[in-house]
Design goal:
Elements (H helix, E strand, L loop, with lengths): L1 E6 L4 E4 L2 E2 L4 H11 L3 E5 H5 L11 E5 L11 E3 L2 H8 L7 E5 L1 H7 L5 E7 L7 E2 L9 E6 L3 E3 L2 E10 L7
Parallel strand pairs: 1-7, 1-8, 4-5, 4-7, 5-6
Antiparallel strand pairs: 2-3, 2-9, 8-12, 10-12, 11-12
Length: 168
């Protein structure tokens, strides 16, 4: 499975249920990478989308502890175990974990590739992605040239898990 996120220099991903910054090229890369694929997200992340609707042209799987939670045009699961069972229906290369913080933390152990947009700026934040630079299991396998959006420098970095153990 894949995990995809945009992080600042402190691995922050959001503040008050909003992205830290919107970079059109990052959003384009996200769309191109996930369109036609399966995206896994939490309820709070879904609620930040336009009209709180699932992303179009993707299979949306929402992880929510609320057993009564339902979303039109999305699959809702209520535990990591149920989620792992659901994603077995798809090629794991086509599954992308897209947030937020608690979903990233719960699902990172099951992922082998991380697509990270690293933004060279520190923002005010209250949610974070696990710092892969400090995790010996992850290594950088690809990096883009540094790019800029106005005065914001960023790059796309791919990490791969050097060893993965699903025996859990």
């Amino acid at each position: 499975m894949n995990i995809i996120a945009a992080v600042d220099k402190n691995w922050a991903i959001g503040c008050r249920n909003q992205l830290l910054v919107r970079i059109p090229n990052d959003q384009k890369m996200f769309r191109q990478t996930t369109t036609g694929k399966v995206v896994v997200l939490g309820r709070k992340t879904l609620e930040t989308f336009p009209q709180g609707l699932p992303l179009p042209n993707r299979t949306n799987i929402i992880l929510s502890k609320n057993s009564g939670y339902k979303v039109k045009d999305a699959i809702v699961v209520h535990s990591v175990e149920e989620l792992l069972e659901e994603v077995k229906k798809y090629d794991s290369e086509d599954v992308y974990i897209i947030g937020g913080e608690s979903i990233y933390r719960q699902m990172l152990p099951y992922c082998d590739t991380a697509h990270i947009t690293k933004i060279d700026h520190a923002y005010e934040a209250d949610s974070y992605f696990p710092n892969l630079e400090e995790d010996a299991d992850w290594e950088v396998t690809a990096e883009s040239e540094e790019q800029t959006y106005f005065d914001i420098a960023y790059e796309f970095v791919e990490y791969r898990r050097s060893s993965i153990d699903f025996s859990g």
